[in-house]
Every structure is written in structure tokens, then in C-alpha cells.
Amino acid sequence: MGAFQWSGDGRRRRGWLAACLTLFVVAACSSRPPAAPPPPPEFSFEGEAPIALFVEGVEVIDGYNPPLAPPNVEHEFAAKPLDIVQAWAAQRIQPAGEGAVLQITMLTGSVVEETLTKERPGGVFGGLRRDLSDWPDRRYVGRLVVRAVYDGPYGEFVVDAVTQGEVDVNKKATLNTAESQYNDMLEAMAEQLDEALTRRIKEGMADLVLVI
């Protein structure tokens, strides 16, 4: 009889021990630190030769006043559209003169979030709601407007370049996934800006371009 009672106590002890271990594992899992956010893009333009201009230097001006409120979201991420402009000016313009600087102003550097419709248009599954599936529910739309100005001994020149980008974000995407997609959009916009601003400067500021 005594042996039976001892065995029951042992089972109860083992049950309590298992419960404690389970609580410990759950607590350990819940206290696991969140995944680190993705690193911001570097915006490298070194694949192309710099544009040599008869200027003394380059000045980047932030002329955009972000609203810091919805629907704008650029302030919520580490990488900013201004980073594109600063990297482009540093890597793509080679000062080769004196007397005046080239001013590159970011007039607009916005990213807004648009809500996508909850109904899938057309098709056999056109009536299924998005909250029952794994479809995108929002879209980031970026717009970058840059103006380059030269006012010096060789004349006055003004050229503008505009680039836009967008990316759809899945409703189940984590914050890190959404930021990675945001970064990919900015990198695509950087490539477009390089092409547009290079062409506009070579055409609209041809008198300042030094042919090497």
C-alpha cells in the first residue's frame, strides 16, 4: 500500500516537473529577441563613369517637407529618398572647374501607402475577399523629383528629373519583409533617377560637361 502511495506521489511530481519545463520553454520562446531589420540599401552608382562638370563643387539641398503622417510612410523606414540623391551627387558628379557650385535639390521625396481593394476583380474567384487569402492589401508608391541648378560664369542652367516606383505588400508580410520590399523599390527608383538625371544634365548643361 505504501509503495502504491509513493508511486502516485512520483507521478504527481513528474507531472509538475513537466508542466514547469513547458512553462520554461514557452517563456524562453516568448522572450526571444525579434529579428534584426534588413540593412538599408547602399545606392551604388559606381558602375558608370562620373560626369565631369566645370563646377567648383556639388551641394545637395533637401527641399522636401515631409508630412510625417499617413498616408506618407517614408519617415517610418531607415532608408530615405534623400539618401538616393546624396549618393548620386557624391558618386556621379566630378567637379572639374571653379567659380560656382552645382546645386542639386530634392523637391519631392515621398512614399505614400495606398490601400488596395478587398475584392479581387474578375475571374472565377472574383468574389473572394482578400482577408480570406494571402494577397497584397497595400501598395507603397514613391515619387522623387530632383532639380539641378547652375548659376555661374558659364551661364544659368536648370534641369529637372522625375522618377516613380511602386510595390505591393502582402497583408501577412512581417515588418522586415515590408521594409525589404520598400528598399527594393527605392533601389529601382535610384536606377531610374540615374538614367534620367544623367541624360538631362548632359543635354541641358552640355556647355558645362567636360569631355575626357
What are its keywords?
3 helices; disordered N terminus; 212 residues; four-stranded mixed β-sheet; alpha/beta; single chain; two-stranded parallel sheet; elongated
Polypeptide structure, described:
A hairpin with a 2-residue loop joins strand 5 (136-152) and strand 6 (155-170). Helix 2 (81-92) packs across helix 3 (175-204). 19% of the residues are buried. The strands form 2 sheets. A 4-stranded mixed beta sheet has the order 2-4-5-6. Helices cover 33% and strands 28% of the residues. The chain is an alpha/beta fold.
In short:
This protein is α/β, with parallel strands linked by helices and 212 residues long.
- Termini gap: 103 Å
Helix content: 25-40%
User: Strand fraction band?
Assistant: 25-35%
Succession of helices and strands: HEEHEEEEH
- Counting helices, strands and paired strands, the structural category is alpha/beta
Number of DSSP helices? 3
Largest sheet: 4 strands, mixed
Mean of pLDDT: 85
Beta strands, count: 6
Strand order in the sheet with the most strands: 2-4-5-6
Describe how the helices and strands are arranged.
Blueprint: H1 2-30, E1 51-53, E2 57-62, H2 81-92, E3 93-95, E4 101-115, E5 136-152, E6 155-170, H3 175-204
Parallel strand pairs: 1-3, 2-4
Antiparallel strand pairs: 4-5, 5-6
Helix pairs in contact: 2-3
